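thought: user wants a sequence for this fold. calling inverse folding tool.
action: design(structure=
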C-alpha cells in the first residue's frame, strides 16, 4: 500500500513539473530589441532648479536639470519556464536637459549665481533592468503579463559640472530603482513574438561623478531636497526565442 502511495505521489509531482500541456510556450530562451519611451518626473530631484555643491575632494557645482520625455532603444536577454520568465535588458535614450531660471547659492561664502534664462544641453539616460514576469492565458498565442523588477539607472548630463577654475565637464548621476509593469505578448510562433508594455519606475539618484574620478554623495540644494524620482515608461519590441 505504501508503495502505491509513493507511485501516486511521484506521478503527481511529474505532472506538476510538466506544467499545463496545453501551454503555447513551455521553455524558451530569447533575445530581443525594443523601442522605448522614457519620462522622468519633474517634481523631485529633476525639477530643473536643484543643484549640488561639493567641497571635497575638490570644489564643484553640479546642476540637476529637468529632463524632457524622449524615445530610445533597448536590447534584452531572457529565459522563460512555463508561465514565469526572468529578463535582463539595457535601455538608452537622449533627453533635452534644462536648468533654471534659478539661483545657485554657495552656502559657506554666501555668494550666488543667478540664471535668468534656461541653461540647456543634452542628457543620456541609461538603465540596466532585471525583471521577473508572470504570464496569463498561457494556452493562447496572445498572453498578458505583469512584471516586477529592479533597475540600475545612470544619467550623463553634458556640461553640467563646473569647478572653481570655471572648467566645465559632464555630470554622471547614478541610482537604484524599482520597476512595476504590465503588458501583452503575441507569439506568432514559439520562436517569434511581439510585445508591448507600460511601466512605472521609482528611482533614487544619490551618487554623482563630475570632476572627481570616483562617485560621491550628492549634496542636494534647491526647492525639492529629495533624491527620489519616478516616471512612466513604455516599450514595444520583438523577440527571437530558442526552445
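)
observation: tool returned 243 residues.
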Amino acid at each position: 500500500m505504501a508503495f502505491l502511495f509513493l507511485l501516486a505521489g511521484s506521478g503527481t509531482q511529474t505532472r506538476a513539473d510538466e506544467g499545463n500541456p496545453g501551454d503555447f510556450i513551455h521553455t524558451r530562451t530569447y533575445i530581443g530589441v525594443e523601442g522605448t519611451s522614457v519620462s522622468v518626473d519633474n517634481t523631485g530631484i529633476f525639477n530643473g532648479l536643484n543643484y549640488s555643491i561639493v567641497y571635497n575632494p575638490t570644489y564643484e557645482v553640479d546642476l540637476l536639470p529637468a529632463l524632457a520625455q524622449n524615445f530610445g532603444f533597448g536590447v534584452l536577454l531572457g529565459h522563460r519556464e512555463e508561465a514565469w520568465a526572468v529578463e535582463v535588458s539595457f535601455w538608452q535614450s537622449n533627453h533635452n536637459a534644462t536648468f533654471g531660471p534659478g539661483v545657485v547659492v554657495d552656502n559657506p561664502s554666501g555668494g550666488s549665481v543667478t540664471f535668468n534664462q534656461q541653461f540647456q544641453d543634452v542628457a543620456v539616460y541609461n538603465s540596466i533592468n532585471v525583471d521577473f514576469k508572470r504570464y496569463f492565458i498561457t494556452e493562447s498565442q496572445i498572453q498578458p503579463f505583469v512584471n516586477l523588477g529592479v533597475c540600475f539607472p545612470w544619467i550623463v548630463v553634458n556640461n553640467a559640472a563646473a569647478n572653481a577654475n570655471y572648467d566645465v565637464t559632464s555630470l554622471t548621476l547614478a541610482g537604484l530603482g524599482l520597476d512595476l509593469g504590465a503588458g501583452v505578448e503575441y507569439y506568432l510562433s514559439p520562436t517569434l513574438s511581439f510585445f508591448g508594455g507600460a511601466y512605472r519606475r521609482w528611482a533614487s539618484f544619490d551618487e554623482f561623478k563630475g570632476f572627481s574620478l570616483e562617485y560621491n554623495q550628492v549634496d542636494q540644494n534647491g526647492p525639492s531636497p529629495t533624491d527620489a524620482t519616478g516616471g512612466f515608461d513604455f516599450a514595444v519590441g520583438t523577440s527571437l526565442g530558442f526552445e
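thought: summarizing for user.
answer: Here is the designed sequence. The longest strand covers residues 142-163.
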